[in-house]
Design goal:
Layout lengths: L2 H4 L2 E7 L6 H10 L6 E6 L7 H4 L6 E5 L9 H16 L7 E5 L6 H10 L1 H6 E11 L3 H7 L1 H8 L3 E5 L6 H14 L4 E4 L18 H7 L16 E8 L5 H15 L3 E8 L6 E8 L2 E9 L8 E8 L3 H9 L5
Parallel strand pairs: 1-4, 1-5, 2-3, 2-4, 5-6, 6-7
Antiparallel strand pairs: 8-12, 9-10, 9-12, 10-11
The protein binds guanosine-5'-triphosphate.
Pfam families: cobW, CobW_C
Keywords: Chaperone, Hydrolase, Nucleotide-binding
GO molecular function, one term: hydrolase activity
Length: 329
């Protein structure tokens, strides 16, 4: 046994296509009882961070990285954040036993894992424990057909969680399992609803193996990263302090689901609705949409609506006009 190796801080890379259930799993990691302190790094694609507002309140260290994809433009930020974590820990300001990184749904996990091999300090202090890929069992098939990122996330996984099993039939699930096993026979497979899994199956499992990753991507340890996002996929965010009219929002969302659902990969937000003391959270993935009152606004919090749309061929002017139309009189 290599004792030095064992002292390294384990890192779990949480990946999965847009809306698969990564934040749901992260919340589970943060709320379930285990004796470990977790430092969390959340990366979002859009310029407005919604996930950080949906991550449960906890004492853990939660660091946000917005406005770019962790595997591309903000990889330098990831290195800086991890280095700062190490220094803060060594000076006794923070304590943590492991790191969990939630990547954007559009991230290729390989360069994120690569970061821990290319930077001297990080490779000395951290060890990638595993890449955990969450799958939306209902939508993944259509994503796999057109989005390279969805394929890379599966190919590179050590553990694959087939989530949202409540939304598919047994036959559909069996076909999906066949396809995924073909893509990555070595990964451990778990099945879940709302990411209810045994955390011991994904944390501290030491399954990340560089030699296997090199078989999948022989350039894994090379500096240059070639990930190109699909130019047609973009993200649009809106912020508005004036309260919104619930009925108008309802109508708008119904229209979007019907008319644009196919192109809307992910839409989510927090709404400030006229006459409601609680903030309203909405979540959408293609034609599946839900909106519900969440907690009351806190006193020190400015009431504000924040929405993010990620999709193909989004028309910003049109969406903005429709959004502004929802502002209450
Ligand atoms: N029906 C169903 N819904 C689920 C399940 N797991 C998560 N969801 C819902 O799916 C939506 C997306 O879940 P998130 O955890 O935000 O997904 P994510 O991967 O973090 O999404 P992005 O970070 O935006 O890519 C939310 O509305 C969840 O409540 C499940 O097993 N079944």
């Amino acid at each position: 046994m290599n004792f030095l190796q064992d002292k390294k801080i384990p890192v779990t890379i949480l990946t999965g296509y847009l809306g698969a259930g990564k934040t749901t799993l992260l919340n589970r990691i943060l709320t379930e009882k285990h004796s470990q302190r977790v430092a969390v790094i959340v990366n979002e694609y859009g310029e407005v961070g919604i996930d950080n507002q949906l991550v449960v309140n906890s004492d853990e260290e939660i660091l946000e990285m917005n406005n770019g994809c962790i595997c591309c433009t903000v990889r330098g930020d990831l290195i800086r954040i991890l280095r700062t974590l190490v220094f803060s820990m060594e000076e006794g300001h923070v304590k943590f036993d492991r790191v969990v990184i939630e990547t954007t749904g559009l991230a290729d996990p390989a360069p994120v894992a690569q970061t821990f091999f290319m930077d001297d300090l990080l490779s000395e202090k951290f060890q990638v424990d595993s890449i955990v890929t969450v799958i939306d069992s209902k939508h993944i098939t259509r994503h796999l057909d057109v989005h390279d990122e969805a394929q890379e996330q599966i190919a590179f996984a050590d553990v694959i969680i087939l989530n949202k099993t409540d939304l598919v039939s047994e036959d559909e699930l069996a076909v999906l399992v066949g396809r995924i096993t073909n893509m990555n026979p070595a990964a451990k497979r778990l099945y879940s609803k709302n990411c209810k899994i045994n955390l011991a199956d994904i944390l501290g499992i030491h399954t990340f193996d560089v030699s296997r990753k090199l078989e999948i991507d022989p350039h894994f340890l090379e500096e240059h990263h070639h990930h190109h996002h699909d130019d047609k996929v973009s993200s649009i965010a809106f912020r508005e302090e004036r309260p919104l009219d619930m009925n108008k929002v309802d109508q708008w969302m119904s229209y979007l689901v019907q008319e644009k659902g196919e192109d809307l990969l992910r839409y989510k937000g927090i709404l400030h609705i006229k006459g409601l003391e609680k903030r309203v959270v909405f979540q959408g993935i293609h034609m599946l949409f839900s909106g519900f009152p969440d907690r009351e606004w806190k006193e020190n919090e400015s009431k504000m609506s924040e929405l993010v749309f990620i999709g193909k061929d989004l028309n910003k002017e049109e969406l903005e006009r429709q959004f502004k139309n929802c502002i209450a009189n």
